[in-house]
Design a protein that fits this description.
Layout lengths: L2 H15 L3 H4 L3 H44 L4 H11 L4 H7 L1 H17 L11 H10 L4 H20 L6 H10 L4 H24 L31
Helix pairs in contact: 4-5, 6-7, 6-8, 7-8, 8-9, 9-10
Length: about 240
């Protein structure tokens, strides 16, 4: 084989074996892109770590506030609702100073919504009912008003289904008993039976005739002074 052929084959083999050192070098813009990707990944990890630490600290604060609330006989639900309603880090103080006014506002707005119904099924709402609605709504004011209306209307219909048809009496009984259906029904039954009880007492009433010589008790045949004759003592 001649020298020219050998040189040609050698050059061809060298070209297939690898790439020249200059071809293996990265372009500057490629290196910049890789650096930016690494920096972005590191920043994202730092942000996630900071977010996790913030959530952990908030959880610890909440646990501490719940424990403080339990010492003051405040339920965890009330503490969480107060945090949402107040937006402050002092829910226990807010419960004492601001919550009563908020509950009154919830009760008033619920009653006003009842007035807009074709038949008022809400009537006056007690503060206790407003508190229950506030807790059920997890501290959301508007939702608490709606829950208060729905709950009272349901109780009204429940009692009316038992045969009590006087709207004002039903609503008043619910208000006086702070939304307790069982107690409200007992009061309504008492009102229905009151005339009957009065009539019975009038029939059984004993009339004492003080102007009679023997002061007899009418209808009982007792002796003088309203007493029977004393029993004779045996000798």
């Amino acid at each position: 084989m001649c020298d020219r052929t050998n040189a040609t084959l050698a050059g061809h083999s060298h070209g297939q074996a690898g790439v020249s050192p200059r071809a293996q070098q990265h372009r500057p813009e490629e290196l910049v892109g890789v650096g930016e990707s690494l920096a972005a990944g590191g920043a994202g990890e730092l942000a996630d770590h900071a977010r996790q630490e913030e959530m952990r600290a908030a959880g610890l604060r909440l646990v501490q506030m719940i424990r403080m609330g339990e010492e003051q006989l405040v339920s965890p639900e009330e503490v969480c609702c107060a945090l949402r309603s107040s937006g402050t880090e002092e829910p226990l103080a807010w419960l004492q100073t601001e919550l009563p006014q908020m509950l009154d506002s919830i009760a008033d707005l619920a009653s006003q919504k009842g007035h807009t119904m074709a038949q008022d099924q809400v009537g006056p709402v007690s503060r206790d009912e407003a508190r229950q609605a506030w807790l059920h709504a997890a501290g959301d004011f508007e939702e608490a008003v709606g829950e208060c209306v729905r709950s009272r209307a349901h109780k009204f219909r429940e009692i009316c289904a038992m045969g009590f048809s006087d709207q004002q009496e039903v609503l008043q009984a619910l208000y006086m008993n702070r939304g307790d259906v069982d107690k409200a029904v007992i009061d309504l039954q008492r009102q229905l039976l009151e005339p009957f009880h009065t009539h019975i007492w009038q029939e059984d009433e004993v009339s004492i005739q003080l102007d009679h010589p023997n002061r007899e008790v009418s209808g009982h045949g007792l002796g003088s002074g309203g007493y029977g004759k004393p029993a004779r003592r045996r000798g």
